[in-house]
Amino acid sequence: MQKLIIASTSSLHGSSYLEYLLPELEKFFGHTEEILFLPYARPSGISYEAYTMKVREALSKIGKLVLGIHECNDPVRAIRQAKAIFVGGGNTFLLVKTLYDLQLLDVLKEVVQHGTAYLGTSAGSNILGMSMQTTNDMPIVYPPSFDTLGLIPFNINPHYLDPDVNSSHQGETRETRIKEFHVWNDIPVIGLREGSWLEVQGRQIVLKGELSARLFRKDKTPVEIETGNHFEVLI
Prior knowledge:
This protein is α/β, with parallel strands linked by helices and 235 residues long. It has helices at 22-28, 48-59, 75-81, 92-101, 105-113, 123-126, 174-184, and strands at residues 3-7, 34-38, 65-68, 84-87, 117-121, 155-157, 189-191, 197-201, 204-208, 213-216, 223-225. It has a single domain (3-225), classed as Class I glutamine amidotransferase (GATase) domain (Rossmann fold). The two termini are 20 Å apart.
């Protein structure tokens, strides 16, 4: 049975890394003391070592040990043996390319399908969808495919922002970009606002956090989904 937390972000304004999620993560990771961390997305170009230390410090507050996958001689074996996995945010193009280069995408999908607990934030959430094509990131590298894990029947747009009616900015909104995606694709898209997450238990998908999420479907008017509602009946 799949067990996922799909978070829009790792940090909220004015709070420390993962702070807003720690009460939830203490329950979610209650079955294990050690979490395998995949730092491949490298936000701001941070090193694997520095990124892992940041995660290690945050999760130590709930009594968890963190092992960086780059510290393992055999990353495939590390994923197979892990009881819990965290894939952090950063650049989705870099994350996906690295997973393909190291031949880790299939094994990651396999273990999560068989019940290994998975936490994703931002880019780590993006890759749970059918494709990475609704990421907000710049294509700094070129992955061999935009196909990702496909563990949920829709795509994620993390850090979703509503249009600011008082802004003089004339660039495209997130909603505009998602409409462009739907000209060529039928995959539903969930716009996750900051501080919101989806919790997946088997086939059940529930929105959590204080804010609603926005559901986009091809040729249909976007729908606001309130926190506590189930997504699997809406797709």
